[in-house]
Amino acid sequence: MEGSNPCFLKTRIADLPMRRIACQYAIVRFMPYIETGEFANVGILLWAPKTRYLGFKLLRKKHARITQFFEELDRGVYLKTMENLDAELCRVQGMLQDQIAEFGDNDREYGSHKGLFQELIRPRVISGERPGAWPD
Hints:
By secondary structure, the protein is of the alpha+beta class.
């Protein structure tokens, strides 16, 4: 995946002291036609709950691979989807940083970061259909 996201905040994994940190990750999938179940991997999301680090990389520039795979897909749909996803993940990163700035970094037991990763990775469907459900 090319480049880093523009909202990459103060804390980067590379800037942390070298130590073992438990992380969770999820592959970001783009599935424009839910009825076929076909998808393309378009990014990665990394969450380190102990440090409250949220990082991601999204495929933004090499969209021809995606639009060639999904032949009927307008490239503008893909680009707008990725732009919206990038903006939302940047918003969540900012929210985490604001929480640390406001409440300090001492108490990690409470706060909006609990359950954050699970909420971010839950499947979403724009059309209102359930993921994996066949239309009636």
